[in-house]
Design a protein that fits this description.
Elements (H helix, E strand, L loop, with lengths): L1 H55 L8 E6 L4 E2 L4 E9 L5 E7 L11 E2 L2 E2 L5 E7 L5 E4 L3 E6 L6 E6 L4 E5 L2 H12 L18 E8 L11 H7 L3 E7 L4 E7 L7 E2 L2 E2 H18 L3 E7 L3 E8 L4 H9 L11 H11 L4 E6 L5 H17 L1 E7 L2 H8 L5 H26 L3 E5 L4 H15 L3
Parallel strand pairs: 2-11, 14-17, 14-19, 19-20, 20-21
Antiparallel strand pairs: 1-3, 3-7, 4-5, 4-6, 4-9, 8-11, 9-10, 12-13, 15-16, 17-18
Helix pairs in contact: 2-4, 4-5, 4-10, 6-7, 7-9, 8-9
Length: 446
Amino acid sequence: MKYFIQSVYTNSLFYKALWSLSVLFVCSFIWPLLYALSVVLLLLWISLALVDLVMLYPKGSRDFIRADRVLPERFSNGDRNEVVLHLESLFPFAVQSEVIDEVPVQFQLRNLSFKPLLIPRQKIKQSYGLKPVERGEYHFGALNVFITGRIGFFSRRYTFNKGAMIKVYPSFVQMRRYEIMAISNRLSEMGVKKIRKMGHHTEFDQIRDYIKGDDVRTINWKATARKGHLMVNQYQDEKSQQVFCLVDMGRTMKMPFDGMTLLDYAINTSLVISNIALLKHDKTGLVTFSDKVNAMLPARNEGRHLQSIMEVLYNQQTDFGEHNMEGLYSLVRHRIHQRSLLILFSNFESLESARRVIPLLGSLANSHLLMVVFFENEEIVRLIRNESGDSEEIYRQAIAEKFIYDKKQIVKELERRGIYVVLTNPENLTVDTMNRYLEFKSRGLI
């Protein structure tokens, strides 16, 4: 038994030694082959890399990619504005590209990129939209185009249009939309009420072509017979009136709603009302104020006056101060002598704050037709609509109802002083303000 175990142990050592010698023998032949293969692959990789570099950087290739960012003359605040990119490749072969546009920091877009395939001599148009929510100057960075070679080892960067700047104006898109509707008598489609004009405060202006929606009573049948199609008489108000938009830029107007501030909603509406007033042959002016008067434009109805209003409004910012109604009152008393419609865009968050300025507003209403436009707090309205689940929710709803009650009391106290009031939410601000302005015109109050 002892000799049997020793024999087996000896045999296992023998087989292990035999296996090790066999492996060494085989590796002595395979290792040189593996080494030679790795050298060949390395040389092939280096060759492909050199070819890729030569294809990406041929002679005169600095101008092989053409790209341009086309911006509109200006951006409209709160609206989608289109930016167009034009790309063209002069490489003799198709290249894969990645276009990264460095948009202004206000948009906070970190991943704006496109990956078009550029075919030789084929122009590509790529567009995207930007929606600003603040007025002012916006600065674009570089338009970067990264080109990847046919093999794909390396990429090359081209840079274009570095440092472009564009101005964001109040919403002239909204202004033009209301203007077109007003010209074609389709304002009712946007929520503006049709108000029958009371009395006779118009005089003949001109004869023009009939537009769908015109009053059939104004058809001029003699002119229609001569021209062969419907013609109507156009009338205008006998006397142009003055309309001033007074925009409060104090801290209470910085409250946000749907990405924009109440101040921006007020400025957009001021632009629309100014344009409609000019179409109605009224003179329009502007005052912006916070703790002091920031800007004033006298009432005019000249052709370029609307552009002057836009230039003043586009870069107006609040300094987070309290509104100075005493300064506004003094300005109106000394600078606006003719009886005018004053549209004051402001915001009152408490009954106490409103009571401090109501006497001054009442004094203005004695000399002018004053309309105060201020805002409902949408967050508080939503809170009241929610179902109360516990005592804390009930307490919050009670406080919210107190705020809404104060708003209604502010309306009553303003109306008691002979001041017209529009209490609305930002979404309906333009329509509600325009309805009241057209009502004043129809009643002959201005």
